[in-house]
Amino acid sequence: MLFNSYIFIFAFLPLTFGIYFYLNHTNRLQEGRIFLVLSSLFFYSWWNIVYLPLILLSMLFNYKIGQILLESDRQTSKKSILILAIIANLILLGYFKYADFFIENLNLALKSSIGLLHLALPLAISFFTFQQIAYLVDSYRQETKAYNFLNYAIFVTFFPQLIAGPIVHHKEMMPQFSNSKNSTINPKNIAMGLFIFSIGLFKKVIIADTFAIWATTGFDVATTLNLIEAWTTSLSYTFQLYFDFSGYTDMAIGVALLFNIKLPTNFNSPYKATDIQDFWRRWHITLSRFLRDYIYIPLGGNRKGSVRTYANLLTTFILGGLWHGAGWTFIFWGFLHGMALVIHRLWSQLGIKLWSGVGWFITFNFINIAWVFFRAKEWDDAIKILSAMFSLDNIILHPAFASLELQGVEYGKMFSDIGGDKWTPFWVIATLLSVVILKNSIEKLKCFKTNNQTAIITSITLSMGILSLNKISEFLYFNF
Amino acid sequence: MNYSKWLINMFLMLLATLSFVLITNYIIDPYGIYNTHLFNFKKITQSEKMRFIKPLVVEAIKPKSIILGTSRAEHGFNPNHPYFLKPSYNFALTSASMYEMTTNLKFAIKQGSLEQVLLVLDYRMFNDKNQKQLEEFESYFDGSRGRYHYLYSLDTFKDTLHTIFKSYKPFFMYHPEGHIVHEYEISKIKKAKWQLENMNRYEKSYYKLLKPNYIYKDTKRNSFKDFDEFIHLCYQNNINLEIIFGPSHIRQWEALAYYLGENTFAKWKRDVLFSVEKIAKEHYLPPYPITDFSIYHTLTSEKMPDRGAIMKYYYDASHYNQKLGTIVLDTLNNNAQYKEFGIKINAQNIEKHLAHQSTIKKNFINVKCYQEEIFGSKILTTKE
After folding, report:
1. Total of domains in chain B
2. Residue ranges making up the domain that contains B326
3. For residues A134 and A297, what is the distance between their CA atoms, to the nearest angstrom?
4. Which of B154, B172, B208 to probe by mutation at the A interface, max A CB count within 10 Å?
5. What is the ipTM of this complex?
């Protein structure tokens, strides 16, 4: 089930909210928690019930191993158990997410023809696997407590964060679930939750879905692009991804707040970053935190000399790329970011400070270009976009500029191959300015006040979001 | 303001906003599907939404006769012509595939009144890139989207605003019977200054990306499966079907030959005919009549317009107007005004007919000149 659906907004959420707090109100806290777990599993199964046993087994397995790790005194056997448990988690993830990628490459390398498995990726598997690996590692380090299974089950399945994060940490979640103060309805949290949910819904269904049209047409449909279309395509995807993902996270934060649970911040105006390290402190913060704490630091971090530090950075980001998707373009995207971080470290050691405007320009363009590889289904798609972005042989300008008589420039429709119109450049520029200048949704939430202005903003963004769930497709291709 | 009061205010405003949008959409009725008629704004945004509007109209009027085909059929055929049983409706769709037309036919049959179908065939219907042009196409027929579904939509509201603030535009595109308003096309041509320039650009790219294999590129499905199903459905439901190859301008077929091969068009006509004959035999019934208007004739070879002039019968080489459509319908109605316009073809005369067309072609068009005009110096005669 998606947050941006009628079934969620008008049925699942109000019912779950009402029943959960009714049970709490009648002093049936335990039943309330059980209900929350069952609701979350229903939420999960809505997409495909086949994978319900998978998340249940994963949860039981990791909870049990966590208990063993906590209780065991023998360091050597604990380490073996931890390694085996992590491998088991990675095998599960690998089987569903990477099996076909592995087979494809094996076929290519050995010229064999092993059939692909064509497995559907179980919803949220990447998220709940990472979340539980963190729990295992912390249990090994004796940094967890003897949580009861019900609280652990809520921690893993709590529906607001289940399918797209933020990747929550048991330390920040468990105390909230067990705090009885959170069991009563809190109008402040409801107001703030609805405020941030409405912004998230607006970001997802109005902004991201608008840019998605140009990005999808440019990447997947158009066979050739002119220079301006290519830049519009890449920028559209850059904005689509940010507004889609951060919008979904805002919705998750908002829904969790209704239940008095505070989820961690996941985005902090990432496109304001003035260097690549700054970007990774602002983009998908909970993933960066996981990669730092559970891959980069265990690999040695920056403690084993500069060469090892660079190698660790590259390894971490290549694995981060692979986590995002099973494909060489994802790995290359991770490699590019890893390299950028290495270069940034080398540059920092030189002690030369760049003017922050130049730093922003370089960083934003690098991120924008790197997203091309992240989005492209095939290498050819990435090459198509990038070659058009950097070629001066394919410039088309609006006929209004025809009087300039520029050499090598054609005059005609500038955005026709990506389904854009005269408003497209306006939206791209306005959005670029907004992500760079304006406060982000979390900053707005922090200074939330109950006044008419916020009530109007919430009601309008919420109604626009709700009305946009019912999309009516246009077919503009008249001449056939 | 305390939190509870803020929540009440916010919910009241939310309710007011949603209600305002719903009521405005209903009153303005931008797609003409609620028949409110409170303001007579021209439905200028209807044209982009015909794939869901037409099924709603068909459901309402339950036509006895329908026209099916692509935008050529939408432009060329007026369902008010005496040829059609009434009520009649032009159920053709722009860029329709055979799959989409078969879906439309099934839906029209389901309404319970359908007796007569005119199917205007277009080569493109069998070879389009997409099996359907919109992902949710089937949902327009399965009852999951009633007419009130479109009330609570921001897209509808945008169209409502366009309808209010842009209805000063002189023409809108569709008649209530589903065919395209002639004056709209004429205004487009006038805007372009010279009709021929547009035509040339159009012909240059029309068939460029098609492949002559009767396969929808996106789903790899064979379009003749849909055509065969279409014919079977007509026999099973006692539909009086008439099939025609439409009277596009002869330049259109040269554009097709340039990209897809000299004999591709003739082969397609032959394949259609044999498919109909085969299915007729399976039903122990005579084959449905097929009439070829895609022929070399003074009507289909109308002279290209001078600068500022407008062609008598054509908007462009692909699309003909209702004047020519009426001549076609008169011919089908046994009231032919032009000699040898519309050749009834069958298994016995098809080869002779195609050979004759091939022979007389040179009297109507100079292929070399045409190719130089449209495609420049690069001459390709066939690419079979």
Report:
1. 1
2. 21-374
3. 13
4. B154
5. 0.82
